[in-house]
Amino acid sequence: MPSVPSSPIPQTQKWQMSLGTSEDHQHFTCTIWRPQGKSYLYFTQFKAEVRGAEIEYGMAYSKAAFERESDVPLKNEEFEVTKTAVSHRPGAFKAELSKLVIVAKASRSEL
């Protein structure tokens, strides 16, 4: 019986998320990224939401910094930032995402 060459099984793509708070606990930062830089995944959409806080800054990147390379931000027309979410813009997002950064201010002090 002839043997059939096996194709390599793709490795699971690893992502990381970090959360941090300011000293006064009024602001927090959430970063979601691919440590190896550019993702090989094809994203049709994305959305990251916050609750109990209002987004003051949000940025999305097509490529995350890796070794000597820098972050490559998405074009402004590819994503939008509202008070509660960072998300793709339908029809404008080019399906590349490797990092999201959100800085939000807590609406109450116990957050």
Automatic annotation (TrEMBL):
The record, for InterPro entries, names: MYDGF
Tell me the GO BP annotations in alphabetical order: positive regulation of angiogenesis; positive regulation of endothelial cell proliferation
Lineage, top-rank taxon, reads Eukaryota
What is the name listed in the Swiss-Prot or TrEMBL entry for this protein? Answer: Myeloid derived growth factor
Ranges of biased composition (kind: Polar residues): 9-20
Query: Pfam families given for it?
Result: UPF0556 (PF10572)
Locate the region Disordered: 1-20
